[in-house]
Structures are given as structure tokens and as C-alpha cells.
Amino acid sequence: MKRLRPSHLAPSRRCQSTAAERDIEAEIRKGAQSYSAATSSEQTPSSTIEPPQWPSISTEDPLGPPPSPLPRDALRSAKLAALHARLSLSDKIPVQTLARTLVDASADPAPLFNNVNLAFLGQTLISYHTSEMLMCRYPRLPMQILHATMKAYGGDKTLFNVARSWGVEAAAAPGMEVDPGLLQFSLDKERGFNTTWGFVRPEAAFIEKYKWRRGISSRVVMDDDFGEALAAPEKEDELEEDGEEDDMGLDLPVERQLTLGDPDDKLNKSHNIHATFVRAVVGAIYTHCGREAARSFVKAHVLSRQLDLQQLFSFKLPTRELARLCAREEFEPPVARLLSETGRLSRTPVFVVGIFSGNDKLGEGSAASLDHARAKAAMNALKAWYLYSPGEDVRVPSDMLVEGSKPWQPVYVDIGEII
Question: What keywords would UniProt list here (predicted)?
């Protein structure tokens, strides 16, 4: 005889897929059994047991109301349908997945219903396509400039502006009654998940205090995609003190939360939350539509932004660096020559100086003094060297993943930085 499962042990109605039910069924059963044991002694024949509403990964409150809208509510959201059409997403991407990208880990800690996993996948794709484009289009970029350029394309502030350009609005506070088409997060709750890759240095707690220098090689190996060191985890006693202070503002609207605590930290966290949503959208496109669709989306919304790379350069000794470059490439030593001048004895003189290597002019600069003009000419010569590009249509390694692609031709690889 088949034994029927009691009603209070039924799977949560929040689960919409068999995979989700299979993963959390044991947790629901465990929580429901403890709930039944606690109420069995006081239960009367006329009393009823409320069924559990949602599973939780927390050990303190295994059962309770869902902190985010149910997946089935996404089918009735006009904002979500408008966002789906505004981004020209494929019909293969269900609105339930798009609704999941709008749920931050600070709003719903359950990894089955927030955007952490999709954001980690999307961050990997954005970093990969950005790095291969920069390394093939500008093969002589120094690593520090490469890290700064990658942050300019895929950093939190840039992706925050991308999310705002999509017309995404933030909910006043997270909850199951919120429209699934709104970005749901809390600035006072800990997220507890990482969406970037990197290692915490043993000396991470003292880097900012003593201003220790970090080498380029260690940045590539230890730090994140942008060459920035990961912060050291806070101690447990500090987290408990901060948690007691933050509990006072958990239910406040987002506009009010911005006025509490450190405004810079909360502003950076808000930028990171919006950027996590954009990365989650890229991860959702890759999951449902494949590699080429995600690549086209990254090109259209991230890599299509205009960036002046010349503004990222800063030289301390440009003349010395240019002399080392000419010696390494076996050019003639650079010589500065005065090309023209005007108003030498006036209040606003202008000198035009050129840097020559033999008969070849490497750079030119103008300033109000001869030394400044020579330095600017050396800077322009170095920028012309570092910003060499074979063209905007240069092929990248991901082009070979397309069926019927032409044979691969190796791209130019520079021998390294000058100093």
C-alpha cells in the first residue's frame, strides 16, 4: 500500500523545477519534522498546521515567508516583460530567469533564487572578451594600463551606468510582495557570496595601512581581474558589533539606508549590486542561448563604449623611459629639437619641441617652457608606441570557436614593458 505524505511535508510551492525540488527536499523534510515535533504536544483535534512556505539555507530560521517574489509571479509582471523586450532578449530566456537576475544576495540568501551564480558566470565572460579584445587590439599596453582599461569597461561604476541606461529601478525594500521587475537588495545586510576571482593576501590587512607596494606579477596571480587586492575578511567580534548597529535599519527604504553608515561604502555597494545584475544577465544569456549570443550581447552593451586610452597614461620620467626604449629596439638615441617658438620674451610663450631618432620624428609637444615641451614630446612618443594597433578588425581567439571560421593567423605579441 502506498503511503501518502502528510500535507506539512509537501514540497514548497516556491519550487518551480524538479531540479530545485530534488536539491532542497531533504532540507524541507528536516525542517518540517522539527516543526511537527514542536507542535505535536500542543495540537488539538481542531487545530491545523500551517504548511511551510519556502526553504532556507539559514540554520536560525529554516521556515518563514519568502524574502523575494515567487518565480510564478514573474509571468504577471509588466516591468519584467518590458525589460525583456527592451534588451531584445531571445524567447529562449524565460522571464523567471530574468527575474532571478534582479534578486541580489542581500535580498534573498538562498543561492537557488538569487543572482550570485549567474553573476559569477557573467563576470568571467565579460573579463574574457574584454581582455582578448584589448590584448589583440593593443598588444603593447602595459599591465597597469590593461587593468585600468578592463576596469573602465567592466568595472562596477561602468556596469552601474549600463544598468541605469536599461531603465532598471530599485525596490524600496526587498520582500515577496515586490514587483519582480524591480532590483531587490538591501544595503545593510551581508551578502556572503563572491562574484569575483582572486586570493586574499596574507598581508592584506596591512597593505593600505603601510602603503606596501604590490608587484605586477603578484597582481596577475593573486588579485582580481582589475589588479586590485581583495580586502581581508573582518573579524567575528567586529561583524557582531556591526550587525547590532545595522539591525536598526534593515527594514528602511533604500533612500533612507543611503543616509546611514558610511556613505562611500554604501554607494560602492550600490554600484556593485547594479553591476552584479548586469553580469547576471550576461550569465543568463550564456546559459540559455549559448556562447555566441552572450558574446554579441557583451560587444553591444560593454565593449561598444568609447574610451580614450591616452588619458590613462601617467609618466614619471618620460625622457628616461624613451631612451631605454630606443636602446632596447636598437634605434638611434633620441634627440630633442626645437621646431618653432613664439613670444619667448612675452608672458605667454609657446615652444614646439620634437623628439627625433635619427631622421625619424618620434613625437612632438608644445608648452610654455622648453623642459615641459620636451617632456610632452617624450610622452607623446611613448603613447604612440604603447597604443600601436593592427586595426579594430583584428581577430581574437574566440573567433575560432565559430563553425566555418578561417584558419588562425597568430597575432602580434610584444616582448614586454620598457621599465
Answer: Mitochondrion, Ribonucleoprotein, Ribosomal protein, RNA-binding
* Strand, helix or coil for residue 111: coil
The half-sphere exposure of 194 on its side-chain side, counting CA atoms within 13 A, is 10
For 134-148, what is each residue's pLDDT tens digit? 999 999 999 999 999
Q: Work out the average pLDDT over 188-217.
A: 78
Say which range, 36-50, 110-124, 264-278, 372-386, has the weakest mean pLDDT.
Answer: 36-50
Strand order in the sheet with 350-357: 335-342, 350-357, 360-367
Whole-model pTM: value is 0.78
Domain boundaries of the chain, sorted by first residue: 71-232+264-309, 313-387
DSSP 331: P
Please, what CATH class does the domain formed by 313-387 belong to? alpha beta
Chain centre to alpha carbon of residue 280:
10
Return the C-alpha torsion angle 165, 171, 175, 181, nearest 10.
Answer: -40
Residue 283 near residue 125 (C-beta atoms within 8 A):
yes
Buried b (16+ CB within 10 A) or exposed e, 286-313: bbbbeeebbbebbeebbbeeeeebeebb
Question: 104: closest CA among 229, 271, 288, 293?
Answer: 271
Give tens-digit pLDDT for 45-68: 444 445 444 554 444 455 567 888
**Grid cell in block for residue 255:** 533612500
Q: Does an H or E element contain 21, and which?
A: helix 18-40
Burial 258-272 (b: 16+ CB within 10 A, else e): eeebeeeebeebbbb
- Encoded amino acid at 86, one letter: R
Q: What is the DSSP letter of 357?
A: E
Entry field: residues in the chain: 419
Given a contact cutoff of 8 angstroms between Cβ atoms, the answer to whether 173 and 255 are in contact is no
Q: What is the CATH number of domain 71-232+264-309?
A: 1.10.1520.10
